[in-house]
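Sequence only, no structure available. Ideas?
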Amino acid sequence: MKPYLGIVNYGCGNVNSLKSILSSLNFNCYESRSIKKLQAADLLILPGVGSYSHATKNLRISGLDKFLKKIYKKKPILGICLGMQLLASIGYEKGKNKGLNIIPGKVINLKRGKFNIGWNTLKCKKTNKVDKFKEFENKFFYFNHGYYYLTLEKYVYMKSSTGDYSIPAIIKKNNIIGVQFHPEKSQLNGKKFLKTIINELIYGK
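Reply:
I predicted one. Tokens follow.
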């Protein structure tokens, strides 16, 4: 039986394009803001487009923040762009806002007025048990953000360069993975990444 992927709809996600690419990969997926429906998923996906402050507010109002803080130890989660940043302890976009605190860290701006928009390659941060990450080294993925996730190096598995410094591109803690880029906008590399990493999270292979 094919697993079900639950896309968390908290009002800030790029849901349609994500559903389209997951369907093209033959995954069963649905989007919902209902905690009851999301509990039934085998894997949860936190998409994201927009500001950290607005996203965290929406999560609090809907009660999804409490749900995610409880469920992450039992269920794998994939966070994409803003969805990855929400895994942090705190974010500083449009004020100081508490995140989900699932992977310790903070979300800060790249530089005043600067954005990382466009295609960039990934570089392996270290040797790790997720060997499947390595096949994406030096491959191009699409980024679009003005803030980045500052976390402990032990959680960083791949990085990408922007300007004169590097940023975490893939972070991981147990069965939680966050990616700063948009795989759903990264064409063939993005499709292959989603298929590989979702299978890794669900089946461990």
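The helical segments are 15-24, 35-39, 52-62, 64-71, 82-85, 187-203.
Hope that gets you unstuck.
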